[in-house]
C-alpha cells in the first residue's frame, strides 16, 4: 500500500545487494551504474538550472556511485568537479571501475585541500550505509565546508556521517536537501537526528523487486497520513454513543487543569462516545465552562474515583496529575483497576519511580520520560530510538509510543512503526496531553492497543501538520489541532 513503506537495516540491504548479484545475476557494476543514473535523473529533476556539479567521493561503493554520476553529467556537457579526501582511493572492484571510466571520459579527481570549488549542487558520495564511526578528519573538514557553503546537496543513499540504522551520528554529518536511498529505505532516515540532515527522502529500487531479494521482515514500517482510512471507516446510520467507548481522563492537579481538559477534548474530537474527567474540586467549574461536553467530576480520593473507573472503557492517566499524594493515590487506583490505560506525563514519572509490567497499557513517553523509565539519559534514548522503544516494550510488556521527530510505535510481537508526519511546531507543552486523548479515544472505539497507538500517533501528527500549514509552526498551540483532528478522523 502506498501509505506503508518497509524500512530496513543496513545489513539487510547489503544482503539484498548480494542476492541481486549472486542469485539474480545482476553484476555489481550494473547496480552501481543504475544508482548513478537514478541520482543524476533526480538531480536534473530537482535542480534543473544547475550547470556546475560538485561530487564529493569517498573510498567505498558510495564513492563509485558518485563517479558514475559525474561521468554522466560530464557527458551531457555540465561542468563537473570531483573532490576526494587526501589519501582516498576506491577499495572495491566496482568503485575502481567507476573511477577508471570517469578518468577514461576525461575526468579528474581533485584532492581536498581545505577549499571547496564553486558548484550549483553538491553530491554527497563520501560514505553511504557502511559507516560505523565518525568521519575521518579530512572527510569531516569536507563535510563542514559543504554544509557551510549553503549550496543544495543531494546525498546518495545516506547523508555521510549518519548511522543508517539509528538515524544518529557522533561526528559531522552532511546536511542534505534530498537523500536518494538505493534498493530499499533505511530505517534510520526517518526518525530522530536524521530528520535534521536528510531533507526529502526518496527511494529507488534500481530496477530490483524487493520480494525477490529477501523474505525477511522489515526492521520497521513507515506509515503516512493516507493510511488513516484503514482505521477510520464511516459509521453506520444507526450508531449510538455507547458503541464508541467511554474515556476517563484522570489528572488536573491544582494549577494544571488545562492539561486534563486538552486530553478530554482531544478524545471527544477523535470521536469517543463519552468523555469524563476526574480532577480536583477546584478545577471543576473552569472545566465545565470550557468544555461542557466532557462530564467533569470532583475526585479527591481513590474511593471517589472507583465508580467512574467502573463505567469507563479506557483510562487516560497523567495529564496534569502531579506526583503528590493525590496524584499517587489516583494513579495507584487506575493501575489496580485492570482497565486499559494510556499513561503519559506524571503517570509515566510515577511508573518510573516504581516500575512494573503493564500489559494493559499504552505508554506515550517523550525522550526524557523514556530515559527515566529506562534509567538512562534522554541523549542515550535519542542515540538509538528503535533500541529504546524495544527496551521499553521488554521492561513494561506493553505498547510504547516514543514521541519525537519520527515517532516510533512498538509493541510485543510487532514490527515497529515510524510515523511519517509531524513537525517541530508540535514540540510544545500540552501536545502530549492531546495525543493521550486521541490514542485513548481510538482504543475505546475498539481498536486494539497497538493499532490505536499507531493510528492515534498518525492522526495527531497529521493534524499538527495541517494546523501548521495555516499559521506556521512557531506558535502552534495544542488546541489548534482540534478542528483538524475532527476533519482527519472523518476521511472522505
TrEMBL record:
Binding site for (6S)-NADPHX: 61-65, 128-134, 157, 259, 320, 366, 433
Note on how the cofactor is bound: Binds 1 potassium ion per subunit.
InterPro entries: Carbohydrate_kinase_pred_CS, CARKD, Nnr, Ribokinase-like, YjeF_N_dom, YjeF_N_dom_sf
SUPFAM superfamilies with a match to the protein in the record: Ribokinase-like (SSF53613), YjeF N-terminal domain-like (SSF64153)
Pfam families reported in the protein's UniProt record: Carb_kinase (PF01256), YjeF_N (PF03853)
Keyword terms of this UniProt record: ATP-binding, Isomerase, Lyase, Metal-binding, Multifunctional enzyme, NAD, NADP, Nucleotide-binding, Potassium
GO molecular function, one term: metal ion binding
UniProt-annotated binding residues for AMP: 403-407, 432
EC number assigned by the record: 4.2.1.136, 5.1.99.6
Highest taxon listed in the record's lineage: Bacteria
Domain called YjeF C-terminal: residue spans: 224-492
One example of a Gene Ontology biological process annotation: nicotinamide nucleotide metabolic process
Cofactor(s) for this UniProt protein: Mg(2+); K(+)
Membership in a protein family: Belongs to the NnrE/AIBP family.
Function: Catalyzes the dehydration of the S-form of NAD(P)HX at the expense of ADP, which is converted to AMP. Together with NAD(P)HX epimerase, which catalyzes the epimerization of the S- and R-forms, the enzyme allows the repair of both epimers of NAD(P)HX, a damaged form of NAD(P)H that is a result of enzymatic or heat-dependent hydration. Bifunctional enzyme that catalyzes the epimerization of the S- and R-forms of NAD(P)HX and the dehydration of the S-form of NAD(P)HX at the expense of ADP, which is converted to AMP. This allows the repair of both epimers of NAD(P)HX, a damaged form of NAD(P)H that is a result of enzymatic or heat-dependent hydration.
Quaternary structure and partners: Homotetramer.
Name of the protein this chain belongs to: Bifunctional NAD(P)H-hydrate repair enzyme
Amino acid at each position: 500500500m502506498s501509505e506503508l513503506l518497509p524500512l530496513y537495516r543496513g545489513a539487510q540491504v547489503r544482503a539484498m545487494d548480494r542476492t541481486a548479484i549472486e542469485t539474480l545475476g545482476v553484476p555489481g557494476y550494473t547496480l552501481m551504474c543504475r544508482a548513478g543514473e537514478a541520482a543524476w535523473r533526480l538531480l536534473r529533476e530537482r535542480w534543473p538550472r544547475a550547470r556546475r556539479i560538485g561530487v564529493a567521493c569517498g573510498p567505498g561503493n558510495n564513492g563509485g556511485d558518485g563517479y558514475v554520476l559525474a561521468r554522466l553529467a560530464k557527458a551531457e556537457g555540465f561542468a563537473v568537479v570531483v573532490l576526494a579526501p587526501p589519501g582516498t582511493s576506491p577499495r572495491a572492484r566496482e568503485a575502481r571501475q567507476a573511477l577508471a571510466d570517469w578518468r577514461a571520459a576525461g575526468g579528474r579527481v581533485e584532492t581536498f585541500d581545505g577549499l571547496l570549488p564553486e558548484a550549483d549542487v553538491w553530491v554527497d558520495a563520501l560514505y553511504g550505509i557502511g559507516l560505523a564511526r565518525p568521519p575521518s578528519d579530512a572527510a569531516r573538514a569536507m563535510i563542514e565546508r559543504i554544509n557551510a557553503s549553503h549550496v543544495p546537496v543531494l546525498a546518495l543513499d545516506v547523508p555521510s556521517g549518519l548511522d543508517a540504522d539509528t538515524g544518529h551520528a557522533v561526528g559531522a554529518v552532511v546536511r542534505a536537501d534530498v537523500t536518494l536511498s538505493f534498493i530499499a529505505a533505511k530505517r534510520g532516515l526517518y526518525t530522530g537526528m536524521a530528520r535534521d540532515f536528510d531533507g526529502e527522502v526518496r527511494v529507488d529500487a534500481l530496477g530490483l523487486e524487493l520480494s525477490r531479494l529477501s523474505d525477511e521482515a522489515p526492521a520497521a514500517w513507515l506509515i503516512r497520513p493516507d493510511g488513516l482510512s484503514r482505521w477510520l471507516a464511516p459509521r453506520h446510520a444507526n450508531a449510538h454513543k455507547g458503541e464508541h467507548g467511554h474515556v476517563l481522563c484522570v489528572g488536573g492537579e491544582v494549577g494544571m487543569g488545562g492539561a486534563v481538559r486538552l486530553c478530554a477534548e482531544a478524545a471527544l474530537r477523535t470521536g469517543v462516545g463519552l468523555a469524563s474527567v476526574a480532577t480536583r474540586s477546584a478545577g471543576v467549574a473552569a472545566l465545565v465552562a470550557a468544555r461542557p461536553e466532557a462530564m467533569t467530576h470532583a475526585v479527591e480520593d481513590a474511593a471517589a474515583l472507583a465508580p467512574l473507573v467502573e463505567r469507563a472503557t479506557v483510562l487516560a492517566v497523567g495529564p496534569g496529575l502531579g506526583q503528590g499524594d493525590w496524584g499517587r493515590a489516583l494513579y495507584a487506583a487506575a493501575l489496580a483497576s485492570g482497565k486499559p490505560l494510556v499513561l503519559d506525563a506524571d503517570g509515566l514519572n510515577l511508573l518510573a519511580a516504581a516500575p512494573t509490567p503493564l500489559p494493559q497499557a499504552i505508554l506515550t513517553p517523550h525522550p526524557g520520560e523514556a530515559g527515566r523509565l529506562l534509567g538512562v539519559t534522554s541523549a542515550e534514548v535519542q542515540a538509538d530510538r528503535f533500541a529504546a522503544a524495544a527496551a521499553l516494550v521488554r521492561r513494561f510488556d506493553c505498547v510504547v509510543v516514543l514521541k519525537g521527530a519520527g515517532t516510533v510505535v512498538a509493541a510485543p510481537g510487532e514490527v515497529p512503526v515510524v510515523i511519517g508526519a509531524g513537525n517541530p511546531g508540535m514540540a510544545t507543552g500540552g501536545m502530549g496531553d492531546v495525543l493521550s486523548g486521541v490514542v485513548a479515544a481510538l482504543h475505546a472505539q475498539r481498536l486494539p492497543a497497538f493499532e490505536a497507538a499507531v493510528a492515534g500517533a498518525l492522526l495527531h501528527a497529521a493534524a499538527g501538520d495541517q494546523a501548521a500549514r495555516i499559521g506556521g509552526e512557531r506558535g502552534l498551540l495544542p488546541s489548534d489541532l482540534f478542528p483538524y483532528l475532527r476533519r482527519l478522523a472523518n476521511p472522505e
